[in-house]
Design brief:
The complex is a heterotrimer of chains A (433), B (310) and C (370).
Chain A: H1 3-25, E1 42-47, H2 54-67, E2 72-77, H3 82-95, E3 101-105, H4 109-114, H5 122-127, H6 137-140, E4 144-145, E5 148-149, E6 152-157, E7 159-164, H7 165-170, H8 181-195, E8 200-205, H9 211-221, E9 227-228, E10 231-232, H10 237-251, E11 255-258, H11 261-266, E12 270-276, H12 280-286, E13 291-294, E14 302-303, E15 305-310, H13 317-330, H14 333-343, H15 356-364, H16 366-374, E16 378-379, H17 383-386, H18 391-403, H19 408-427
Helix pairs in contact in A: 9-10, 18-19
Chain B: H1 18-36, H2 39-67, H3 72-75, H4 90-98, H5 101-132, H6 138-150, H7 153-166, H8 173-180, H9 184-196, H10 199-207, H11 212-220, H12 225-241, H13 244-249, H14 258-262, H15 274-304
Helix pairs in contact in B: 4-15, 5-8, 5-9, 5-12, 6-9, 12-15
Chain C: E1 4-11, E2 21-28, E3 33-37, H1 44-52, E4 59-64, E5 67-68, E6 79-82, H2 94-104, H3 109-122, H4 138-150, E7 156-160, H5 168-185, E8 188-193, H6 196-202, E9 205-210, E10 213-218, H7 220-225, H8 230-235, E11 242-249, E12 252-255, E13 258-261, H9 264-269, E14 273-278, E15 283-285, E16 302-311, E17 315-322, E18 332-337, E19 347-352, E20 358-361
Parallel strand pairs in C: 3-8, 3-9, 6-7, 7-8
Antiparallel strand pairs in C: 1-2, 1-4, 4-5, 9-10, 11-12, 11-14, 12-13, 14-20, 15-19, 16-17, 16-19, 17-18
The chains are: A alpha/beta (433), B mainly alpha (310), C alpha+beta (370).
């Protein structure tokens, strides 16, 4: 249908029609206080089962129900990805019947926290005498707003440097990842020569598919950042230098962007990539060549990612207490090991690595070990990407433009202005309120 | 009184016998064909165009089918495999073990059937009232209905959710079915169909003493089957593929439909094993494909109804 | 069997426009065949549809058998209608089409079958009973439409130009069939047509409408011989009457400079200007134009320049303009018998027949009657 005429009609008939419809549909008054639907001894857990984790989630739930008789956990299929869970949670916020525990990603949690739709957990944690110091610090502090924590880490991932060992060998390179991006630049011509014309040295996800996530590593590697706290720093010379580096990689024909680099890498068309640890299991299983993994180039430059679990604000205290009990169980050392071994995510507890079954697992899976060992070198992401509404998409779009050859300084200057404006209009007023 | 008449030239044309008519039609067709005949180059170009369109439509479907029979490692290889080698039914068995596939099918069938039926009945009845019955406020009701058509359902989803949640209908069939049974499109389509029917036939039926339901059933509907079939098919396909609302309403396989269920085959954060996804897609397409082949003739007639006035 | 009475019946489609049907009063006797005729847009179809209940009556009343039909639904009026398009149900066979109304009226199956068979016999539809409308010719469909009306044995038949979709030859034969059928069944019939030949040949009486107003209701003969105004005079008769505006002086009208003496009784009522109407057959040819008397009384014969000749075999019609007249002068139509042969470009002298002159008031167009 023609967009214009549709809008035109909306303008005319809309006033009466839309109002009438809205009235018919009846938003009603959601039972926002009190119980918010649900019952106090059934814990509703809304999850998208990250990393195909439904069976292991069920396994943990069963163990929880055995340990806590009288409590039941209902596992709800809440979406195919984090955005869909957020969408469904949003709908329930309007309509009542809130879940008790909900999966929130590094990008989606903040808006819920800011609008007081998630409970701050600190008080509940201290009442329940749960020791938070065992959570990996970078992961735990990802959910910090105004010195309060709104979620606990659950299915956490980081990017890894994946490389094709056969190609590395053909190019005469050592069997390791690059120390930093400058070193990679010296490797790139060799890799290209070894790969041949129909293969690509490096493939990264495009701007619609989290290039902005992995690119943080390059930015930090050159001493730049997307932002310092809430101040955007795209125009910082170091940030611009990183942008220029990315642009040159593309210009020189070493870099290609795609919707999902995993299939190309697995098919052996691509020499190396930066992808989530979550892809580890799949890539290793599908690839017909030896897969190598390494830390991201640089030191302490690895962004965190993935999701945590939170508790809605408008449910009864009893429900919150039970919810927290379940969250603690879900993310304790034993269960985080069970969960991460089944999925490829990171253990979120420091003590997890010391458990014998984890030790044995890492022994057998050296690539998984890379990810764990990288964990202490992770760094919480910059605010303007994860906390500003639409931040990731905005930066991703800018990066796409840079790769296509637009002037880096200009694009980043525009990003500065846009980010600042979004912050001023949507966040500033709510902070510390 | 003058009885003289000026009759003009007397036209000899009577109803031509069938054979004669056929011959004439063929002759007319030949004339038409010859004007379209622009030599072998254009004919070849026409076929090339057809083949291109066929490829654009068929290749993805073929790829889905082939991939559903491939082993996992054969999916991502260069050069691409155009035939599963070796072929395996593994993906199909994995499909039924990894997700409760038969539950999703059952839910999809129940929800699609109920919703489509409700939509068709409501659509026909409301269109009938809005086109052939006279009552005060008719045009206002119609404008409201059309306005509903203009509002994308993403907008009404939240308020519908609130209503259904308050009724305690989340994760129930009725919670999914009833809000979907709204029929602006069907009302609009069928109303236009009814308005395009020759008014004199409706009047003739009224004079012949047909009551409202008899008028609808014996006179109006028989003239509207092609449009109704097309509408029904479109409805069934869109209900079968409906995602957003069933996803929001359902919590688990007791009510979730196929499109929702199939997404759980895809990995959220990592590498998806596409084999079972393709197998699920193939199985999800089958019922609609069968239905389409079954109703195809009427459907095509419906889409071109009114193009040629008999 | 019923009488129909239109009492000041009026139909207004919108408030601003003139009424489509404007205060028509019409008394139709039981068993009468009444034809409503007029140019398109005159309101004749609307009048018929008001009777059938398909249009509301905005003013006045329509009575059937003395009962006001206001608020009576079409299906309760017991009126059968034959539409111009026939409006057959395309999904039903001819037999089913005819049985539909009886079926709705809960007539028993055996009686239905019998009545359909009877109608089929009358209309020679027997071999077609199982065919659907799409498999029939126009004439066959028309007969099924008739049959659908007949089987109901209604109080009134309404027919809305039922012949206009037939070819000319079939139209003529069906015309007499319908008239004969109506005589045989004796059902009150209101028949709408724009074709005055149809009106004249079929109706017991003919009602002429113009702009929603009833002009004249009369037998065909009266309409032809005594049209009440110039409109009726011009509308009825083919070829049309020749109407010429003339001065009247001393009981003599001058038509294109030719003196036409008027009856004394009529001349007294005429003003200074009249419209003289002369039918084609109201002229005769004079071989040598005689001058009548002298000076201002002028000639009695009109010299025509022949512009068109329509020869029908038994007779012919000559269209011509008075010699010496302007191009925009009205043409005169004259009927000639077959012995007189004329060609385009000839000049012919004609004289009006005495006593066959129609006289109308020039201002109002009303007939000036003796």
């Amino acid at each position: 249908m023609n967009e214009f005429s549709r809008r035109g009609f909306l303008g005319l008939a809309g006033a009466a029609g839309v109002a009438g419809l809205a009235a018919c549909a009846g938003t009603g008054t959601a039972p926002s206080t009190g119980s918010g639907g649900g019952s106090s001894n059934t814990i509703e857990f809304w999850s998208n089962h990250p990393g195909n984790s439904k069976p292991v989630e069920q396994q943990i739930i069963k163990a929880f129900e055995v340990a806590n008789s009288g409590l039941k956990v209902k596992l709800v299929d809440a979406g195919k990805n984090y955005e869909e869970v957020a969408q469904k949670f949003n709908a329930s916020l309007a309509g009542g019947q809130l879940p008790d525990v909900v999966v929130v990603s590094d990008v989606t949690w903040f808006n819920f926290a800011l609008n007081k739709q998630l409970s701050p957990l600190d008080e509940l944690l201290s009442t329940a005498k749960i020791d938070t110091s065992d959570y990996v610090d970078a992961l735990y502090n990802d959910y910090n707003l105004d010195e309060k924590h709104y979620a606990l880490p659950f299915s956490r991932s980081t990017p890894l440097f994946y490389y094709n060992k056969d190609l590395w060998k053909a190019a005469g390179l050592e069997d390791r990842g690059p120390k930093d991006w400058d070193e990679f630049l010296t490797w790139a011509p060799k890799l290209k020569a070894a790969a041949g014309s129909d293969k690509i040295v490096m493939e990264l996800p495009d701007g619609s598919n989290y290039l902005d996530w992995v690119f943080q590593n390059m930015v930090w590697g050159y001493g730049g950042a997307y932002s310092k706290e809430w101040t955007p720093t795209f125009s910082d010379p170091n940030t611009v230098e990183a942008g220029t580096y990315l642009q040159n990689l593309a210009k020189d024909g070493y870099l290609k962007l795609s919707k999902d680099p995993a299939p190309d890498f697995t098919a052996g068309i691509v020499g190396c990539s930066m992808m989530s640890t979550g892809s580890l299991g799949g890539v290793a299983k599908d690839a017909k060549f030896p897969v190598g993994t390494a830390f991201l180039p640089g030191d302490g430059n690895c962004p965190t990612g993935g999701a945590g679990v939170g508790v809605p604000a408008n449910i009864s205290d009893d429900r919150k207490k039970n919810a927290l009990k379940f969250i603690e169980f879900l993310t304790n050392a034993q269960n985080t090991v069970t969960f991460t071994q089944a999925t490829g995510y990171m253990p979120v507890r420091k003590s997890a690595v010391g458990l014998p079954e984890e030790k044995a697992f890492l022994e057998k899976n050296p690539n998984a070990k890379t990810a764990i060992e990288q964990l202490p070198k992770t760094r919480s992401q910059d605010n303007v990407r994860v906390l500003l509404p639409g931040g990731g998409a905005r930066i991703g779009k800018g990066l796409d433009q840079i790769v296509q050859g637009q002037d880096v300084a200009t694009v980043f200057k525009a990003l500065d202005a846009e980010s600042q404006q979004v912050f001023d209009s949507q966040i500033k007023g709510k902070l510390g309120a | 009184m003058s009885t003289s008449t000026i009759v003009g030239t007397v036209d000899e044309e009577k109803t031509p016998p069938a054979a004669d008519r056929r011959r004439r039609r063929r002759a007319a067709h030949n004339v038409e064909a010859s004007t379209h005949n622009r030599g072998p180059v254009w004919t070849a170009a026409g076929y090339v165009g057809m083949v291109l369109v066929l490829l654009v439509v068929a290749v993805p479907l073929f790829w889905i089918l082939v991939t559903s029979f491939k082993e996992r490692g054969d999916i991502y290889v260069r050069p691409a495999q155009w035939w599963p080698e070796p072929a395996t039914g593994q993906n199909y068995s994995e499909l039924t073990t990894r997700i409760p596939f038969s539950d999703y099918v059952r839910n999809s069938v129940i929800i699609t059937a109920a919703t489509s039926l409700a939509k068709i009945i409501l659509g026909v009845l409301s269109a009938y009232a809005l086109s052939l019955m006279r009552f005060p406020g008719r045009s206002i009701v119609f404008i409201v209905v059309i306005a509903a058509l203009m509002v994308p359902n993403q907008i009404t989803v939240i308020s519908n959710y609130a209503l259904v949640a308050q009724l305690g209908w989340r994760n129930t069939y009725q919670g999914i079915i009833i809000p979907l049974a709204g029929v602006a499109f069907g009302t609009f389509l069928m109303r236009n169909q009814f308005l395009n029917l020759p008014g004199e036939i409706i009047e003739a039926a009224r004079l012949d003493g047909a009551g409202p339901m008899k008028l609808l059933w014996r006179v109006v509907m028989p003239m509207s089957w092609p449009t109704l079939v097309a509408f029904a098919l479109i409805t069934v396909v869109s209900e079968w593929n409906e995602y957003l609302w069933p996803f929001l309403m359902s919590d688990d396989e007791s009510t979730a439909t196929l499109p929702v269920g199939l997404t759980f085959l895809q990995n959220n954060d990592g590498v998806t094993n596409w084999g079972p996804v393709m197998a699920g897609t193939v199985l999800a397409m089958l019922p609609i494909l069968v239905l389409f082949l079954f109703l195809q003739r009427q459907m095509i007639k419906g889409l071109t109804a009114g193009a040629v006035k008999s | 069997m019923a009488t129909v009475y239109f009492d000041e019946a009026t139909r207004r489609f919108s408030k601003e426009d003139a009424p489509a049907v404007d205060g028509i009063t019409l008394d139709i006797a039981d068993g009468e065949f009444l034809v409503l005729v007029g140019p398109s847009g005159c309101g004749k179809s609307t009048t018929l549809r008001m009777l059938a209940g398909l249009e509301p009556v905005d003013g006045g009343r329509i009575l059937v058998d003395g009962h006001d039909q206001k608020g009576v639904r079409p299906r309760d009026r017991d009126i059968a209608m034959v539409f111009q398009s026939y409006a057959l149900y395309p999904n039903m066979s001819a037999a089913q089409n005819m049985a539909f109304a009886l079926d709705n009226a809960k007539v028993s199956r055996s009686e239905t079958r019998q009545r359909v068979a009877e109608a089929a016999k009358i209309l020679e539809l027997e071999p077609l009973l199982d065919r659907k409308p799409g498999q029939m010719s126009g004439g066959q469909r028309q007969r099924v439409a008739m049959g659908r009306a007949i089987v109901r044995n209604p109080k009134v038949f309404c027919m809305d130009e039922p012949l206009s979709n037939l070819d000319a030859k079939l139209r003529v034969s069906t015309r007499s069939q319908i008239a004969g059928l109506q005589r045989r069944l004796g059902i009150t019939t209101v028949y709408v047509t724009h074709d005055q030949v149809e009106a004249m040949t079929m109706g017991h009486r003919v009602a002429v409408l113009r702009d929603g107003k009833l002009q004249q209701v009369d037998t065909p003969e009266r309409l032809y011989d005594h049209p009440v105004n110039t409109f009726v005079a011009a509308f009825i008769g083919s070829p049309a009457i020749t109407l010429v505006e003339s001065d009247v002086r001393e009981g003599v009208a001058r038509v294109h400079g030719v003196s036409v003496p008027l009856d004394r009784s009529v001349a007294g009522r005429a003003g200074e200007k009249v419209v003289v109407g002369l039918r084609p057959e109201s002229w005769h040819v004079v071989e040598t134009p005689a001058r009548s008397g002298a000076g201002d009384s002028g000639t009695t014969a009109l010299a025509l320049n022949v512009e068109l000749v329509e020869s029908l075999g038994s007779e012919s019609f000559v269209y011509g303009r008075p010699v010496g007249a302007d191009d925009d002068a009205d043409r005169v139509t004259v009927r000639l018998d077959k012995r007189t042969h004329l060609a385009v470009g000839d000049t012919v002298h004609v004289e009006p027949n005495r006593g066959e002159v129609h006289l109308f008031d020039a201002a109002s167009g009303e007939r000036i009657e003796a």
